[in-house]
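look at this one:
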Amino acid sequence: RLLEIPEEILMEIFSFVPAKNLGKLSRVCTDFQRVIDDPFLWRERCQALFPFCSVDRVKKKIIFLIKKIKL
């Protein structure tokens, strides 16, 4: 049965599905929706599409500004 597949395996499979198809796939069942709604699945996609908004880059900018203010 398909729904007996562990979430980790589904996550790996869904990582190869184009983003535009994930919304449709999430409507198949609540199990798929829960896996597809996981932020981990979207994190790399968002960072690839919007590299200027990556968490690491924002953290570095904040640290830089704090150090600049203290000087």
